[in-house]
């Protein structure tokens, strides 16, 4: 459901709030704040207000909650704390070139139980981003947002493998999908990112954003195809790639929210905002990179990158 | 030696003129016209006059010579035909995804003998593109162009391996270098394309163009860094990738020639012209794709791609 108003649109994100332990070849971060919804909200809130829906256990460290509460523009009205529950935790290790990683552990905790509920006060949200989880859960969350005008879902290889039919059903109900090039190939059997994207549109969405990591992203839309290169980050600029994809999505969706537009041209511009948010994220552990960049730094990098493709 | 006039600059290319036999998963082209200088000239001549320097044997089929002679704007005054010599021939086979290829045979023929000579009438050429060959030969050719204002060299992994010192010497004498990301990594020991490019500037050039194939290219320049995505070609658009790199270089250099400018901003725009030329090249066997595109098609694709990053 594409709209073309110029009134800002309200934005809601569902996803994980987690505790990450990350090792890189040169550094380590122990039990820092992470999770798809946390990263998304930290980035999105730099451009537009965002409503967060997710669950944590009552073990969430107080300083992590303080960080979330300190994110200006993030409405935590949908953050549920489950007594006796354990917060989602993830541990990962990046290999030498920082483009490959291995997962050391995943403790689902409360995420394995009932999904979060969208509070009634959030049901009028116009833009919805469904962070990566089981597609049947995503479909259930979507139904709770009666005011939705445009819904975009993230997914991953696991669901393509074990919940293919649920994913195809979800695709018939969303307006956009965000996935990696390898996932697009897996879903369609087509390696070419654009051709794969077009096949995905056959399942129902208006557009697919196919992410190519350090090689940028492609927007395959019913109205056209657009490409964006990755931000050309030098080696010493990359501290921790965790959250790059989630903050890319956050910047992308928030640009739609603040402009109140969801047409092809706006989506294309939104790709660059996503890229800029991701470029700050990878410069520090946890949410620090994107949360601490000044407004001037964001605007300056956007201008150099999106308008001139320069750094 | 950067200049900033607005008078067009003369352009010279040295490289191979060859006979290619190409197999793709779905088609085959037998003994068609190819070679780095032929591809370069076919692309460059779409934007600016170009002088070609190279050698062939007297076995070059008459219809190949007719094709070369038919390229409007290509001055063949530096095309030497050696009696009794054999024209360079190459055979290659592309694997299923068209991004990998294997060389089936390489018959150097006259290319293994003495290098071509730059005719006296070409010695005043201002822009020089040294197609890929032994760096000592490239250095010798460069010296023959006394009027040179900006020299760009192509190279390949073979010379990094077996002629490293000659290549480093060449780098101290050129203004720009064009190479693949894997070659940049091999030369510098650094995988990151931008960091590798900066290291290469340490050898002397003002700029390095690091090509990433289907992922675009990066321009690392003393005055800044610029990125260009690849043209987002769908599967059915790619017939034969042969010559994509050479026509990229041809479009790139010809844009400098016709604008008479070699500053960073112009080089950045030139990247997009290179990308557009390569996108036509891969759509057909031999020079056909880039030679047969209409002027309107070139302009239209440039506008969509470079101005809007759309297809």
Short description:
The structure is a homodimer of 311-residue chains. In chain A, 35% of the residues lie in helices and 25% in strands.
Detailed description of the structure:
Two copies of one chain form a homodimer. With 311 residues, chain A is α/β, with parallel strands linked by helices. Chain A has one domain: 3-Layer(aba) Sandwich (UDP-N-acetylmuramoyl-L-alanine:D-glutamate ligase), CATH 3.40.1190.20. Chain A has eleven helices and 13 strands. In chain A, the strands form two sheets. Chain A has a nine-stranded mixed β-sheet, with helices on both faces. Chain A has a four-stranded mixed β-sheet with strand order 3-2-6-7. In chain A, α9 crosses α11. The longest helix of chain A is centred in the last third of the chain and has 18 residues, at 264-281. The radius of gyration of chain A is 18 Å and the shape is globular. The model of chain A has no long low-confidence stretch (mean pLDDT 93). The A-B interface holds A 97, 190-195, 198, 212, 215-216, 218, 224-230, 232-236, 268, 308-311 and B 97, 190-195, 198, 212, 215-216, 218, 224-230, 232-236, 268, 308-311.
């Amino acid at each position: 459901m594409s709209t073309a108003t110029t009134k800002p649109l309200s934005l809601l994100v569902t996803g994980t709030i987690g505790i990450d332990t990350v090792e890189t070849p040169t550094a380590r971060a122990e039990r820092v704040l992470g999770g798809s919804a946390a990263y998304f909200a930290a980035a999105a809130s730099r451009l537009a207000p965002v409503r967060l829906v997710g669950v944590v256990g009552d073990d969430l460290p107080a300083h992590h909650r303080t960080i979330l509460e300190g994110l200006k523009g993030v409405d935590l009205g949908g953050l549920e704390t489950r007594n006796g529950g354990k917060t989602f935790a993830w541990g990962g290790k990046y290999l030498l070139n920082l483009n490959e990683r291995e997962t050391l552990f995943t403790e689902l905790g409360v995420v394995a139980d009932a999904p979060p509920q969208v509070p009634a006060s959030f049901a009028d949200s116009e833009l919805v981003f469904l962070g990566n989880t089981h597609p049947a859960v995503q479909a259930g969350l979507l139904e709770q947002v009666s005011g939705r005008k445009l819904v975009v879902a993230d997914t991953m290889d696991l669901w393509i493998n074990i919940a293919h039919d649920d994913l195809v059903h979800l695709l018939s109900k969303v307006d956009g999908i965000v996935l990696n090039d390898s996932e697009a190939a897996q879903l369609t059997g087509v390696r070419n990112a654009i051709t794969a994207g077009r096949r995905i549109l056959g399942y129902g969405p208006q557009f697919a954003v196919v992410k190519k990591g350090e090689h940028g992203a492609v927007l395959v839309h019913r109205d056209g195809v657009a490409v964006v290169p990755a931000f050309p980050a030098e080696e010493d600029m990359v501290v921790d790639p965790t959250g790059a994809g989630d903050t890319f999505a956050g910047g992308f969706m928030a640009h739609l929210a603040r402009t109140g537009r969801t047409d092809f041209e706006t989506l294309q511009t939104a790709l660059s905002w996503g890229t800029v948010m991701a470029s700050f994220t990878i410069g520090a552990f946890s949410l620090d990179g994107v949360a601490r960049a000044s407004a001037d730094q964001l605007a300056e990098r956007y201008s150099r990158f999106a308008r001139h493709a320069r750094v």
